[in-house]
Amino acid sequence: MEYYLVKWKGWPDSTNTWEPLQNLKCPLLLQQFSNDKHNFLSQVKKGKAITLKDNNKALKPAIAEYIVKKAKQRIALQRWQDELNRRKNYKGMIFVENTVDLEGPPSDFYYINEYKPAPGISLVNEVTFGCSCTDCFFEKCCPAEAGVLLAYNKNQQIKIPPGTPIYECNSRCQCGPDCPNRVVQKGTQYSLCIFRTSNGRGWGVKTLVKIKRMSFVMEYVGEVITSEEAERRGQLYDNKGITYLFDLDYESDEFTVDAARYGNISHFVNHSCDPNLQVFNVFIDNLDTRFPRIALFSTRTINAGEELTFDYQMKGLGDISSDSLDHSPAKKRIRTVCKCGAMTCRGYLN
């Protein structure tokens, strides 16, 4: 008869008991136990796997240790997933998945929904006027006042070329929440999954639903710091081989967004030399051109289960030649090998 060592929820390890299969009314946990054991055996070398299965009276310590670690990881990731969904302020759900290794939630990452200004930086620059349109799609609205075209079509898909700013209706506008010029401000509408990549790229983000081309997907948020501070942090990040610095250089080059410690789901989006997301500068309630909001839109139809990526150098599709519109987020000095796997891969992230 098979017996299982049971850890009782809410009780210390000292109260663990051995129970026969007939006493266990937890089919999901038993299936996870079986899957974890199978995954461990499939990861070790064939010759070693044979020796691990020789003694069928008890699990080898290595297998038991892996199963316990995997169970604890699963609990930790579920708690992290719950926390992320409590903190987000938009419709789309966040899921977390790791079927690759034993990596748990990041220990030094704090989820935020909007820019977090560093000490000494003020982002308070409330808009002083708004439109009085009855139909913003046909009347002279906020974009026209700013001297640009309305960014969206009737399906709320972006229709302007990269490099062109987006001016959405703001809190002083008389139009309602269903206005066709309110897209980025409504947040992510899609359910997305933070997942562990299998080719050494750490965490990534994939969509769980189909995303139409030219649709808003997410904002890139983080801590707003000065360019001088970004240079200092960039040196530290280079040594760790990470890139989270995104220059706010729409018109000037005074400030940078650092999403290393503070950020949203965009923190986990990987680079690709052939990306499916494109960056746009957005202005809503703050019209200060030094602080554009950074929005990521799909460049093509993205199918459910597909990974989301953007080009850390913002080259390729919609490349902007003007220096004032060079949206290069990566301040790098040490060359980092690119693992995106695209046919057009440049070989390096920087």
Major pleated sheet: 4 strands, mixed
Mean pLDDT across the residues is 88
Distance between the termini: 59 Å
CATH class membership of the domain at 94-310: Mainly Beta
Strand order of the largest sheet: 5-10-12-11
What structural class results from the helix and strand content? Answer: alpha/beta
Give me the number of helical elements.
Answer: 5
Lay out the secondary structure.
Layout: E1 3-6, E2 17-20, H1 27-43, H2 46-54, H3 61-87, E3 94-97, E4 110-111, E5 116-117, H4 142-145, E6 166-167, E7 192-196, E8 203-207, E9 216-220, E10 223-226, H5 227-240, E11 245-248, E12 255-258, E13 262-263, E14 270-271, E15 277-283, E16 293-298, E17 309-310
Parallel strand pairs: 3-7, 4-13, 5-10, 6-15, 14-17
Antiparallel strand pairs: 1-2, 7-8, 9-16, 10-12, 11-12, 15-16
Helix pairs in contact: 1-3
Task: Give an account of the 3D structure.
- Strands 5-10-12-11 form a four-stranded mixed beta sheet. It has a four-stranded mixed beta sheet with strand order 6-15-16-9, with no helix packed on it.
- Helix 1 crosses helix 3 (61-87).
- It has a domain at 94-310: SET domain (Beta-clip-like, Beta Complex), CATH 2.170.270.
- The model is unreliable at 315-332 (pLDDT under 50).
- The chain has 350 residues and is α/β, with parallel strands linked by helices.
- It is built from five helices and 17 strands.
